[in-house]
């Protein structure tokens, strides 16, 4: 029986690397797969890993019909044993339904990879549907880390050096500049640049909720770290 598997993690946790490794291992054993991705950082129709590997893939648009993609190949005499679906957070809920149907009715394995939640900590529609439908959900073993050393569980968006919690759900970008301690204090907005610079940083929940990025932490030393914010308790007016 084929399965729909969802491999998830924060940004920079090795999802695309694993996608390319799985493709390699299956292909090496004579199986034939179709690779899909959507809005990869390296450009259209691509799966790219920060380890330097990249390969061609079919670009998924909101109107892409996976069922037709697969039946089209099969009716032309092609073979399809599995699908590799990267950046699956950007797929629509309906497309995830199609992937589940491909696993069940065509007996084709579907390996989907994506981040679960956005910079506002909300589920992406594609990831939500994968959580609802997948036979198995596997969280990536190589943990991305927060600047404090704890496991990173959340993705922060940083615009011109400041963590933001408002904006469009989808803005393609990378983590590297934000995580690099050499570039962490000053934002690299070039003089006269019209467009704001958007980057991402992986954080633990605590620092995501406090909006403390590596830049913010660099500005603080030792015991200057802020205490958790708790509203002051309401006090009754003193009576004599
Ligand atoms: N220079 C490097 N040396 C070793 N490992 C690296 C290097 N750069 C990136 N990586 C590894 O690659 C991972 C990111 O892989 P990638 O597949 O691009 O992530 P994702 O698709 O989850 O965003 C990092 O978490 C790290 O483990
Ligand atoms: C958190 C978050 C991320 N994105 C974008 C940024 C990247 O282009 C991809 C994630 O790619 P990765 O291979 O997992 O690093 O998603 C976004 O559009 N909105 C967000 O909230």
Automatic annotation (TrEMBL):
The keyword Ribonucleoprotein does not apply. Substrate binds at residues 170-173. One of its GO terms (cellular component) is cytosol. InterPro entries: P-loop_NTPase, Thymidine_kinase. Keywords: ATP-binding, DNA synthesis, Kinase, Nucleotide-binding, Transferase. Its EC number is 2.7.1.21. It catalyses: thymidine + ATP = dTMP + ADP + H(+). Residues 210-240 are annotated as: Disordered. GO terms for molecular function: ATP binding; thymidine kinase activity. GO terms for biological process: DNA biosynthetic process; thymidine metabolic process. The active site is at 87 (proton acceptor). It comes from the Bacteria. Belongs to the thymidine kinase family. PANTHER family: THYMIDINE KINASE, THYMIDINE KINASE, CYTOSOLIC. This is Thymidine kinase. It comes from Arthrobacter crusticola.
